[in-house]
Amino acid sequence: MQKLYTKTSKFYIGFYIFFIFGAAMGDYKVLNAALGALPKVVSAGAVGLALMYILWSGNLKNFKVFYRFALLFSSIVVGIIICSILIWIIDLQSLSYIIKGTSKVSYQLLNIAIVLCAVYMFEEKAATYTFFGIAGANIVIILIGAATTGIGGAVSDMIANITSFGASDVITNSKFIRAIEIHDITFVMGVYVVYYLFFCPQEKYRYIYAGIALFLFFAGLKRIAFLSLLIAVMFTLLCFLLSAKGKIRLLLFTSVSIVAFCYFYIIIIQNGTFSRFCIEHEIELNGREKIYDYISNFYEVSPSYGGKGYEFCVQLLKSMHNTKDQVVDITAVHNDILKMYVEMGFWGFLFWITGYYILQTHWYISRCGEKVAVCFMSINIYMLFTYLTDNTMFYYWSSMVIRMIPMSFFFSPIKESPLRSDNPLYLNNFDRWRLKKRKAEAENQKKPKMILQ
User: Which of 113, 191, 202, 287 could staple 328 via S-S, CB 3.0–4.6 A?
Assistant: First the structure.
Protein backbone atom coordinates (compact mmCIF):
# COMPACT_ATOMS: atom_id res chain seq x y z
CA MET A 1 0.00 0.00 0.00
CA GLN A 2 1.37 3.43 -0.94
CA LYS A 3 2.23 5.54 2.08
CA LEU A 4 0.41 8.80 2.65
CA TYR A 5 3.36 11.18 2.92
CA THR A 6 2.55 13.89 5.44
CA LYS A 7 4.76 16.55 3.83
CA THR A 8 2.58 16.67 0.71
CA SER A 9 -0.70 15.25 2.03
CA LYS A 10 -3.59 17.73 1.95
CA PHE A 11 -5.21 15.70 4.73
CA TYR A 12 -2.35 16.16 7.21
CA ILE A 13 -1.55 19.72 6.12
CA GLY A 14 -5.18 20.80 6.31
CA PHE A 15 -5.83 19.30 9.72
CA TYR A 16 -2.58 20.68 11.15
CA ILE A 17 -3.35 24.23 9.98
CA PHE A 18 -6.91 23.84 11.34
CA PHE A 19 -5.58 22.80 14.77
CA ILE A 20 -3.18 25.74 14.93
CA PHE A 21 -5.87 28.13 13.68
CA GLY A 22 -8.37 26.88 16.25
CA ALA A 23 -5.88 27.23 19.09
CA ALA A 24 -4.81 30.72 17.95
CA MET A 25 -8.44 31.89 17.84
CA GLY A 26 -8.34 31.43 21.61
CA ASP A 27 -6.25 34.63 21.71
CA TYR A 28 -9.33 36.60 20.62
CA LYS A 29 -10.16 38.60 23.74
CA VAL A 30 -13.81 37.52 23.92
CA LEU A 31 -12.87 33.83 23.75
CA ASN A 32 -9.85 34.34 25.99
CA ALA A 33 -11.99 35.98 28.68
CA ALA A 34 -14.49 33.11 28.55
CA LEU A 35 -12.18 30.12 28.09
CA GLY A 36 -8.71 31.26 29.18
CA ALA A 37 -5.92 29.03 27.88
CA LEU A 38 -8.26 26.11 27.11
CA PRO A 39 -8.27 26.64 23.30
CA LYS A 40 -4.50 26.04 23.27
CA VAL A 41 -5.30 22.34 23.84
CA VAL A 42 -6.62 22.21 20.25
CA SER A 43 -3.04 22.53 18.99
CA ALA A 44 -2.28 19.17 20.63
CA GLY A 45 -4.12 17.69 17.64
CA ALA A 46 -0.72 17.97 15.88
CA VAL A 47 0.63 15.34 18.27
CA GLY A 48 -2.33 13.09 17.48
CA LEU A 49 -1.73 13.49 13.74
CA ALA A 50 1.95 12.56 14.08
CA LEU A 51 1.18 9.52 16.26
CA MET A 52 -1.45 8.37 13.78
CA TYR A 53 1.08 8.61 10.94
CA ILE A 54 3.80 6.79 12.93
CA LEU A 55 1.45 3.92 13.88
CA TRP A 56 0.18 3.62 10.31
CA SER A 57 3.49 3.94 8.44
CA GLY A 58 6.11 2.92 11.01
CA ASN A 59 8.27 5.72 9.63
CA LEU A 60 10.94 6.70 12.20
CA LYS A 61 13.12 8.60 9.76
CA ASN A 62 15.64 10.96 11.42
CA PHE A 63 14.71 9.61 14.86
CA LYS A 64 18.17 10.46 16.29
CA VAL A 65 17.89 14.05 15.05
CA PHE A 66 14.49 14.51 16.70
CA TYR A 67 15.75 12.87 19.89
CA ARG A 68 18.61 15.38 20.12
CA PHE A 69 16.34 18.34 19.47
CA ALA A 70 13.94 17.00 22.11
CA LEU A 71 16.76 16.84 24.67
CA LEU A 72 17.91 20.35 23.74
CA PHE A 73 14.47 21.92 24.10
CA SER A 74 13.28 20.01 27.16
CA SER A 75 16.51 20.34 29.16
CA ILE A 76 15.91 24.10 29.57
CA VAL A 77 12.35 23.56 30.84
CA VAL A 78 13.28 20.64 33.11
CA GLY A 79 16.19 22.68 34.50
CA ILE A 80 13.81 25.50 35.49
CA ILE A 81 11.47 22.99 37.17
CA ILE A 82 14.28 21.27 39.12
CA CYS A 83 15.80 24.58 40.21
CA SER A 84 12.40 25.83 41.39
CA ILE A 85 11.60 22.62 43.29
CA LEU A 86 14.92 22.86 45.16
CA ILE A 87 14.15 26.48 46.10
CA TRP A 88 10.60 25.59 47.21
CA ILE A 89 11.83 22.71 49.36
CA ILE A 90 14.46 24.92 51.04
CA ASP A 91 11.79 27.59 51.66
CA LEU A 92 9.39 24.91 53.02
CA GLN A 93 6.65 25.77 50.50
CA SER A 94 3.43 23.74 50.59
CA LEU A 95 2.89 20.84 48.19
CA SER A 96 -0.04 22.66 46.55
CA TYR A 97 2.19 25.67 45.84
CA ILE A 98 4.87 23.42 44.33
CA ILE A 99 2.35 21.59 42.13
CA LYS A 100 0.81 24.86 40.93
CA GLY A 101 4.20 26.39 40.11
CA THR A 102 5.40 23.26 38.33
CA SER A 103 2.24 23.06 36.20
CA LYS A 104 2.73 26.68 35.12
CA VAL A 105 5.96 25.83 33.29
CA SER A 106 5.26 22.18 32.44
CA TYR A 107 2.85 23.15 29.63
CA GLN A 108 6.00 24.06 27.69
CA LEU A 109 6.62 20.32 27.31
CA LEU A 110 3.39 20.10 25.27
CA ASN A 111 4.64 23.04 23.24
CA ILE A 112 7.88 21.16 22.54
CA ALA A 113 5.98 18.00 21.57
CA ILE A 114 3.95 19.99 19.02
CA VAL A 115 7.14 21.48 17.54
CA LEU A 116 8.76 18.06 17.18
CA CYS A 117 5.61 16.52 15.66
CA ALA A 118 5.12 19.39 13.21
CA VAL A 119 8.71 19.20 11.93
CA TYR A 120 8.51 15.39 11.82
CA MET A 121 5.46 15.60 9.55
CA PHE A 122 6.35 18.61 7.39
CA GLU A 123 10.10 19.15 7.81
CA GLU A 124 11.09 22.59 6.42
CA LYS A 125 7.43 23.45 5.70
CA ALA A 126 6.42 23.16 9.37
CA ALA A 127 7.17 26.81 10.14
CA THR A 128 5.14 28.00 7.15
CA TYR A 129 2.10 25.83 7.91
CA THR A 130 2.20 27.10 11.49
CA PHE A 131 2.32 30.64 10.11
CA PHE A 132 -0.79 29.94 8.02
CA GLY A 133 -2.72 28.87 11.12
CA ILE A 134 -1.61 31.72 13.38
CA ALA A 135 -1.84 34.45 10.71
CA GLY A 136 -5.24 33.14 9.60
CA ALA A 137 -6.58 33.49 13.15
CA ASN A 138 -5.08 36.98 13.42
CA ILE A 139 -6.79 38.08 10.19
CA VAL A 140 -10.14 36.68 11.33
CA ILE A 141 -9.81 38.54 14.65
CA ILE A 142 -9.11 41.77 12.76
CA LEU A 143 -12.15 41.20 10.53
CA ILE A 144 -14.37 40.55 13.56
CA GLY A 145 -13.10 43.76 15.13
CA ALA A 146 -13.68 45.70 11.89
CA ALA A 147 -17.23 44.31 11.67
CA THR A 148 -18.11 45.86 15.02
CA THR A 149 -16.59 49.29 14.33
CA GLY A 150 -16.91 49.60 10.55
CA ILE A 151 -14.14 49.29 7.97
CA GLY A 152 -13.60 53.06 7.74
CA GLY A 153 -13.26 53.46 11.48
CA ALA A 154 -11.00 50.40 11.73
CA VAL A 155 -8.64 51.72 9.03
CA SER A 156 -8.45 55.21 10.57
CA ASP A 157 -7.84 53.76 14.05
CA MET A 158 -5.10 51.50 12.70
CA ILE A 159 -3.41 54.42 10.92
CA ALA A 160 -3.65 56.51 14.10
CA ASN A 161 -2.10 53.70 16.12
CA ILE A 162 0.82 53.30 13.71
CA THR A 163 1.49 57.03 13.25
CA SER A 164 1.33 57.63 17.02
CA PHE A 165 3.64 54.66 17.54
CA GLY A 166 1.19 52.87 19.79
CA ALA A 167 0.36 55.81 22.05
CA SER A 168 -1.63 54.78 25.14
CA ASP A 169 -4.43 57.30 24.58
CA VAL A 170 -5.02 56.02 21.02
CA ILE A 171 -5.26 52.42 22.22
CA THR A 172 -7.48 53.33 25.18
CA ASN A 173 -9.92 55.32 23.04
CA SER A 174 -10.19 52.77 20.21
CA LYS A 175 -12.44 49.78 20.68
CA PHE A 176 -11.04 48.28 17.47
CA ILE A 177 -7.37 48.55 18.52
CA ARG A 178 -8.15 47.06 21.92
CA ALA A 179 -9.96 44.16 20.22
CA ILE A 180 -7.04 43.27 17.92
CA GLU A 181 -4.31 43.85 20.53
CA ILE A 182 -3.32 40.18 20.78
CA HIS A 183 0.13 40.38 22.31
CA ASP A 184 1.53 36.89 21.70
CA ILE A 185 0.57 36.71 18.02
CA THR A 186 1.84 40.24 17.37
CA PHE A 187 5.27 39.34 18.76
CA VAL A 188 5.28 36.13 16.69
CA MET A 189 4.73 38.10 13.50
CA GLY A 190 8.03 39.90 14.11
CA VAL A 191 9.79 36.52 14.26
CA TYR A 192 8.22 35.53 10.95
CA VAL A 193 9.28 38.80 9.30
CA VAL A 194 12.91 37.92 10.10
CA TYR A 195 12.41 34.32 9.00
CA TYR A 196 10.83 35.07 5.63
CA LEU A 197 13.21 37.88 4.77
CA PHE A 198 16.40 35.93 5.48
CA PHE A 199 16.00 32.22 6.18
CA CYS A 200 13.78 30.38 3.72
CA PRO A 201 15.14 30.87 0.19
CA GLN A 202 13.25 27.79 -1.03
CA GLU A 203 9.87 29.37 -0.19
CA LYS A 204 8.33 30.66 -3.43
CA TYR A 205 6.06 33.26 -1.79
CA ARG A 206 8.43 34.26 1.02
CA TYR A 207 8.17 38.00 0.38
CA ILE A 208 4.37 37.86 0.26
CA TYR A 209 4.37 36.01 3.58
CA ALA A 210 6.84 38.56 4.98
CA GLY A 211 4.49 41.34 3.87
CA ILE A 212 1.51 39.68 5.57
CA ALA A 213 3.53 39.16 8.74
CA LEU A 214 4.68 42.80 8.68
CA PHE A 215 1.09 44.04 8.23
CA LEU A 216 -0.10 41.96 11.19
CA PHE A 217 2.94 43.11 13.17
CA PHE A 218 1.95 46.74 12.66
CA ALA A 219 -1.75 46.00 13.23
CA GLY A 220 -1.05 44.94 16.80
CA LEU A 221 1.87 47.35 17.16
CA LYS A 222 4.11 46.83 20.20
CA ARG A 223 6.76 49.50 20.57
CA ILE A 224 9.42 47.26 22.10
CA ALA A 225 8.82 44.72 19.31
CA PHE A 226 9.46 47.39 16.67
CA LEU A 227 12.84 48.22 18.22
CA SER A 228 13.59 44.51 18.65
CA LEU A 229 12.86 43.84 14.99
CA LEU A 230 15.23 46.58 13.82
CA ILE A 231 18.04 45.20 16.00
CA ALA A 232 17.44 41.62 14.79
CA VAL A 233 17.47 42.71 11.13
CA MET A 234 20.73 44.64 11.59
CA PHE A 235 22.34 41.67 13.34
CA THR A 236 21.27 39.31 10.56
CA LEU A 237 22.58 41.61 7.83
CA LEU A 238 25.90 41.85 9.66
CA CYS A 239 26.14 38.06 9.81
CA PHE A 240 25.47 37.78 6.09
CA LEU A 241 28.46 40.05 5.38
CA LEU A 242 30.84 37.84 7.35
CA SER A 243 32.66 34.68 6.36
CA ALA A 244 31.75 31.33 7.91
CA LYS A 245 34.45 31.72 10.60
CA GLY A 246 33.40 35.33 11.13
CA LYS A 247 29.81 34.25 11.72
CA ILE A 248 30.90 31.69 14.32
CA ARG A 249 33.05 34.23 16.18
CA LEU A 250 30.23 36.79 16.17
CA LEU A 251 27.69 34.22 17.37
CA LEU A 252 29.85 33.10 20.30
CA PHE A 253 30.75 36.70 21.20
CA THR A 254 27.07 37.69 21.08
CA SER A 255 25.99 34.80 23.28
CA VAL A 256 28.53 35.72 25.98
CA SER A 257 27.64 39.42 25.66
CA ILE A 258 23.95 38.63 26.24
CA VAL A 259 24.77 36.99 29.58
CA ALA A 260 26.83 40.01 30.69
CA PHE A 261 24.17 42.44 29.41
CA CYS A 262 21.36 40.71 31.33
CA TYR A 263 23.25 40.86 34.64
CA PHE A 264 24.02 44.54 33.99
CA TYR A 265 20.33 45.11 33.21
CA ILE A 266 19.29 43.53 36.52
CA ILE A 267 21.78 45.72 38.42
CA ILE A 268 20.50 48.99 36.95
CA ILE A 269 16.92 47.96 37.69
CA GLN A 270 17.77 47.03 41.28
CA ASN A 271 19.56 50.33 42.03
CA GLY A 272 16.85 52.42 40.32
CA THR A 273 19.03 53.69 37.45
CA PHE A 274 16.71 52.20 34.81
CA SER A 275 13.59 53.86 36.23
CA ARG A 276 15.32 57.24 36.60
CA PHE A 277 16.62 57.06 33.04
CA CYS A 278 13.13 56.35 31.65
CA ILE A 279 11.57 59.17 33.67
CA GLU A 280 14.26 61.69 32.73
CA HIS A 281 13.94 60.85 29.02
CA GLU A 282 10.11 60.65 29.14
CA ILE A 283 10.07 57.00 28.08
CA GLU A 284 6.58 55.69 28.75
CA LEU A 285 6.57 52.41 30.69
CA ASN A 286 2.88 52.43 31.72
CA GLY A 287 3.65 51.86 35.38
CA ARG A 288 6.23 49.11 34.86
CA GLU A 289 8.89 51.11 36.70
CA LYS A 290 6.71 51.02 39.84
CA ILE A 291 6.59 47.22 39.68
CA TYR A 292 10.36 47.00 39.14
CA ASP A 293 11.04 49.28 42.10
CA TYR A 294 8.63 47.33 44.32
CA ILE A 295 10.08 43.92 43.41
CA SER A 296 13.61 45.23 44.06
CA ASN A 297 12.77 44.89 47.76
CA PHE A 298 12.63 41.11 47.40
CA TYR A 299 16.01 40.31 45.83
CA GLU A 300 19.66 41.35 45.71
CA VAL A 301 22.31 41.10 43.03
CA SER A 302 24.71 38.81 44.83
CA PRO A 303 26.02 35.22 44.52
CA SER A 304 24.39 34.59 47.92
CA TYR A 305 20.88 35.27 46.56
CA GLY A 306 19.12 31.90 46.22
CA GLY A 307 15.88 32.85 44.41
CA LYS A 308 12.19 32.52 45.19
CA GLY A 309 11.06 29.80 42.75
CA TYR A 310 9.11 29.96 39.51
CA GLU A 311 5.92 32.11 39.51
CA PHE A 312 6.87 33.95 42.72
CA CYS A 313 6.58 37.38 41.08
CA VAL A 314 3.13 36.68 39.64
CA GLN A 315 1.85 35.37 42.98
CA LEU A 316 3.34 38.41 44.75
CA LEU A 317 1.54 40.87 42.48
CA LYS A 318 -1.70 38.89 42.63
CA SER A 319 -1.61 38.77 46.44
CA MET A 320 -1.65 42.57 46.70
CA HIS A 321 -4.27 43.09 43.97
CA ASN A 322 -7.17 45.23 45.28
CA THR A 323 -5.35 45.87 48.56
CA LYS A 324 -3.75 49.00 50.02
CA ASP A 325 -0.33 47.63 48.96
CA GLN A 326 -1.24 47.49 45.26
CA VAL A 327 1.38 49.24 43.13
CA VAL A 328 -0.41 49.33 39.75
CA ASP A 329 -3.51 47.65 38.36
CA ILE A 330 -1.63 44.81 36.62
CA THR A 331 -0.51 41.46 37.95
CA ALA A 332 2.29 40.70 35.49
CA VAL A 333 5.93 41.76 35.93
CA HIS A 334 6.41 42.86 32.30
CA ASN A 335 10.11 42.04 32.50
CA ASP A 336 11.08 38.42 31.91
CA ILE A 337 14.79 38.95 32.59
CA LEU A 338 14.04 40.42 36.02
CA LYS A 339 11.40 37.78 36.69
CA MET A 340 13.77 34.91 35.91
CA TYR A 341 16.49 36.36 38.14
CA VAL A 342 14.17 36.94 41.09
CA GLU A 343 12.72 33.43 40.78
CA MET A 344 15.81 31.41 39.83
CA GLY A 345 18.36 33.21 42.01
CA PHE A 346 21.90 34.31 41.08
CA TRP A 347 23.25 30.84 40.22
CA GLY A 348 20.01 29.42 38.83
CA PHE A 349 19.71 32.42 36.53
CA LEU A 350 23.35 32.02 35.47
CA PHE A 351 22.85 28.34 34.65
CA TRP A 352 19.64 29.10 32.75
CA ILE A 353 20.92 32.01 30.69
CA THR A 354 24.28 30.33 30.00
CA GLY A 355 22.49 27.16 28.90
CA TYR A 356 19.98 28.99 26.75
CA TYR A 357 22.26 31.39 24.92
CA ILE A 358 25.86 30.13 25.12
CA LEU A 359 25.43 26.35 25.15
CA GLN A 360 22.51 26.34 22.71
CA THR A 361 24.41 28.60 20.31
CA HIS A 362 27.41 26.28 20.44
CA TRP A 363 25.08 23.28 19.97
CA TYR A 364 23.50 24.80 16.86
CA ILE A 365 26.92 25.69 15.41
CA SER A 366 28.38 22.22 15.94
CA ARG A 367 25.27 20.11 15.28
CA CYS A 368 23.48 22.14 12.61
CA GLY A 369 26.08 24.47 11.09
CA GLU A 370 26.63 28.20 11.37
CA LYS A 371 23.76 29.11 9.01
CA VAL A 372 21.17 27.52 11.29
CA ALA A 373 22.94 29.02 14.30
CA VAL A 374 22.57 32.49 12.75
CA CYS A 375 18.85 31.80 12.31
CA PHE A 376 18.60 30.74 15.97
CA MET A 377 20.46 33.80 17.23
CA SER A 378 18.66 36.30 14.99
CA ILE A 379 15.17 35.40 16.17
CA ASN A 380 16.35 35.06 19.77
CA ILE A 381 17.92 38.53 19.69
CA TYR A 382 14.53 39.81 18.56
CA MET A 383 12.81 37.98 21.43
CA LEU A 384 15.49 39.00 23.97
CA PHE A 385 14.67 42.69 23.63
CA THR A 386 10.98 41.97 24.12
CA TYR A 387 11.88 40.17 27.37
CA LEU A 388 13.25 43.44 28.77
CA THR A 389 9.82 45.06 29.24
CA ASP A 390 7.30 42.30 28.54
CA ASN A 391 6.17 38.75 29.43
CA THR A 392 6.99 37.03 26.15
CA MET A 393 9.47 34.40 27.36
CA PHE A 394 6.83 31.74 28.01
CA TYR A 395 4.11 32.97 25.67
CA TYR A 396 2.68 29.93 23.92
CA TRP A 397 3.11 30.90 20.26
CA SER A 398 6.39 32.76 20.80
CA SER A 399 7.89 29.71 22.52
CA MET A 400 6.68 27.50 19.71
CA VAL A 401 8.02 29.43 16.74
CA ILE A 402 11.46 30.24 18.18
CA ARG A 403 11.96 26.48 18.54
CA MET A 404 10.30 25.47 15.30
CA ILE A 405 11.93 27.96 12.91
CA PRO A 406 15.61 26.97 13.45
CA MET A 407 14.60 23.31 13.39
CA SER A 408 12.62 23.76 10.14
CA PHE A 409 15.53 25.70 8.65
CA PHE A 410 17.88 22.82 9.53
CA PHE A 411 15.63 20.47 7.54
CA SER A 412 15.64 22.81 4.54
CA PRO A 413 17.65 21.36 1.63
CA ILE A 414 18.52 24.91 0.54
CA LYS A 415 20.25 27.31 2.92
CA GLU A 416 20.98 30.19 0.53
CA SER A 417 19.14 32.07 -2.19
CA PRO A 418 20.12 30.60 -5.57
CA LEU A 419 22.20 32.65 -8.00
CA ARG A 420 21.06 32.99 -11.59
CA SER A 421 24.30 31.44 -12.84
CA ASP A 422 27.64 30.04 -11.69
CA ASN A 423 29.36 31.95 -14.49
CA PRO A 424 30.49 35.44 -13.33
CA LEU A 425 30.03 36.77 -16.86
CA TYR A 426 26.26 36.44 -16.50
CA LEU A 427 26.02 38.06 -13.07
CA ASN A 428 25.79 41.66 -11.88
CA ASN A 429 28.42 43.06 -9.51
CA PHE A 430 26.50 42.17 -6.33
CA ASP A 431 25.89 38.56 -7.45
CA ARG A 432 29.55 38.25 -8.46
CA TRP A 433 30.48 39.26 -4.92
CA ARG A 434 28.03 36.70 -3.52
CA LEU A 435 29.45 33.95 -5.74
CA LYS A 436 33.03 34.81 -4.80
CA LYS A 437 32.11 34.89 -1.10
CA ARG A 438 30.38 31.49 -1.28
CA LYS A 439 33.35 29.87 -2.98
CA ALA A 440 35.71 31.31 -0.37
CA GLU A 441 33.46 30.10 2.45
CA ALA A 442 33.03 26.57 1.14
CA GLU A 443 36.12 25.15 2.85
CA ASN A 444 35.60 27.05 6.11
CA GLN A 445 31.96 26.24 6.74
CA LYS A 446 31.16 24.24 9.84
CA LYS A 447 29.87 20.84 8.75
CA PRO A 448 26.89 19.78 10.91
CA LYS A 449 27.42 16.73 13.12
CA MET A 450 23.78 15.73 12.63
CA ILE A 451 23.09 14.27 9.21
CA LEU A 452 19.55 13.92 7.85
CA GLN A 453 18.58 10.59 6.36
Answer: 287
How far is residue 168's CA from residue 285's CA, in Å, rounded to a whole number? Answer: 10
Cβ distance 297 to 316 under 8 Å? no
Distance, in Å, from the CA atom of 269 to the CA atom of 300, rounded to the nearest integer, reads 11
What span, in angstroms and rounded, lies between the C-alpha atoms of 308 and 342?
6
Quote the CA–CA distance of 369 and 432 in Å, as a whole number.
24
What is the helix, strand, coil percentage profile of the chain, to 5? 75, 0, 25
Query: CA 74 to CA 241: how far, in whole Å?
Result: 33
Residue-wise DSSP of 244-312: HHHHHHHHHHHHHHHHHHHHHHHHHHHTTHHHHHHHHTT---TTHHHHHHHHGGG--SSTT-----TTH
Q: Where are the alpha helices (DSSP H) in 43-174?
A: 45-57, 63-90, 95-122, 126-149, 151-163, 168-172
Neighbouring C-beta atoms of residue 380, cutoff 10 Å: 21
DSSP category for residue 331:
-
Can you tell me the distance from the alpha carbon of 364 to that of 369, in angstroms, rounded to the nearest whole number? Answer: 6
Q: How far apart are CA 231 and CA 102, in angstroms?
A: 34
pLDDT by residue (tens digit) across 404-413?
A: 999 999 998 8
Q: How many residues does the chain have?
A: 453
How far is Cα 15 from Cα 350, in angstroms, rounded to an integer?
41
The rounded distance, in Å, linking the Cα atoms of 360 and 369 is: 12
The pLDDT tens digits for 93-151 are 777 777 877 877 888 999 999 999 999 999 999 999 999 999 999 999 888 888 777 77
Q: Comparing C-alpha atoms, which of 219, 229, 212 is closest to residue 162? A: 219
CA 80/CA 75 separation, integer angstroms: 9
State pTM to two decimals: 0.90
CA pair distance 196, 206, nearest whole angstrom: 5
